Every structure is written in structure tokens, then in C-alpha cells.
Amino acid sequence: MKRINAMIMALGLSGSALAGGMNDDPFLFMLKMDKLEFRDADEGTALVWDAQAWAGKDLNKLWLKSEGERGEEGTEEGNIEVLYSRAIAPFWDLQAGWRHDFRPTPDRDWFALGVKGLAPYLFEVDATAYVGESGRLAAAFSAEYEYMFTQKLILSPELEMSLYSKDDEETGVGAGLSDIELGLRLRYEIVREFAPYIGVVWWNKFGKTADYAEDEGGKTSDVEFVAGFRLWF
């Protein structure tokens, strides 16, 4: 994102700046832990992560993404993505690559194609379509907004949803709208690179995904309180 790039360049974190040189299109890099939080669930405390890293120049970058959840019995959900990203408009990138779901088992692999950027009214949007084995299709969408009470105190509502074209009983996923998650987090930026936060999350599973969860004795909806931190460098 150009806004992030500008901040990094201002802090002197580009590859060229570190080398003491000047470049109109420097090599940049970033590691961002968007979420690292504990959730107070009925089954016990769960650790949730959402991490991103990228390296490249203004138009072309390599992205790594990972998100998942670990409960008291081990990792319940987890994936990693490797994507090539190309800027196609101001504040918008086209991304393509590979996603590997390593939890739940059996693991699944997908070809990914999506867009990531800043929508009107400053909504951060990430929308991706996936093509998997045996003709499976999937889609993921997330949108986040930041409301600044002060320069350091920021309220961030967020929406996430997933859709699938086919039932996949082995991984507990049903066709159609699979799940929705709504979150509201309030963070305080001690410094721009580090911000602890608290919040609340509501999630709900739908259709066959909910049926599979009930068959396994799990819940189909819950409200969870969260506490964690966000950092980047």
C-alpha cells in the first residue's frame, strides 16, 4: 500500500536507505502482525493470529500471509499464502499465488486471485477467489475501517466472510456462505509500530458448515472477548 510505503520510507527502512543511497523506486520490506490475540471462548482460551509480510518495489511485491487459531487441543485452523502482487491503480493491488490450508486436516491447496486496497471512505478491503482440487471454488472477503478518537486511540470495526462451492465434510466446510465474523477492537498506539488492544468478536457458521460443527459437538455461534496487540516493522 502506498500509504504504508510512505511511512516506511519516512522512517528510513527501505533497502536503499539502509545502504545510504537514494532511489525513486527503492526496495522496501515490511512485517506486520495485524492480530495476535487471546480469545475467551467457552472451550477455553484460544490464540488467534493474522500476519503479513511483503518485500519489493512500488509496483511489484512478494507477499506472505498466514492466519489461524490455536486452542487448548492444538491448532484448529491455519493457512499460509504466497502471492505475487502488482499495483494496478492508486491504493489497489492485484494479487495471485498459492494458499495452503494445513488445518483442519486433510490439508487443501488452492490457486488464489484477488485484490487488496483502500476502498472509498477509507475501507481497507481484501477480496480473494480460490480454485482448489476436484473443482472446488472458494472466496474470502474482509473489510476494515479505522475511526481515530485521537492520534493514538483507534476504534476498528471489521467484517470477514467465507464462501465455498462444494460441501467438504472432511474439513467441516459446507457449500454456500460458510461463516461470518464481526469484530470491534479498540487499540492504543504506544508507538506507531506497537499497539495493544481489547475488543469483542461475534462469529456465526451457516448451512452445512453449521451442521458439521453440531455433529462434532461444537458451537455454531459465539461472542468472544479478545485482548492482544498489533505490531509492524
Molecular structure report:
This protein is mainly β and 233 residues long. It has a single domain (31-232), classed as monomeric porin ompg (Porin). Helix content is 9%, strand content 64%. The protein contains 3 helices and 13 strands; from the N terminus they run ααββββββββββββαβ. The protein has helices at 2-10, 15-18, 207-215, and strands spanning 28-41, 44-56, 60-71, 74-89, 92-103, 108-119, 123-132, 137-144, 147-148, 153-164, 176-188, 194-205, 221-232. Strands 1-2-3-4-5-6-7-8-10-11-12-13 form a 12-stranded antiparallel β-barrel. The chain is globular. The protein starts with a helix and ends with a strand. The relative contact order is 0.13. The model is unreliable at 1-20 (pLDDT under 50).
Task: Describe the secondary-structure layout.
Elements: H1 2-10, H2 15-18, E1 28-41, E2 44-56, E3 60-71, E4 74-89, E5 92-103, E6 108-119, E7 123-132, E8 137-144, E9 147-148, E10 153-164, E11 176-188, E12 194-205, H3 207-215, E13 221-232
Antiparallel strand pairs: 1-2, 1-13, 2-3, 3-4, 4-5, 5-6, 6-7, 7-8, 8-10, 9-10, 10-11, 11-12, 12-13
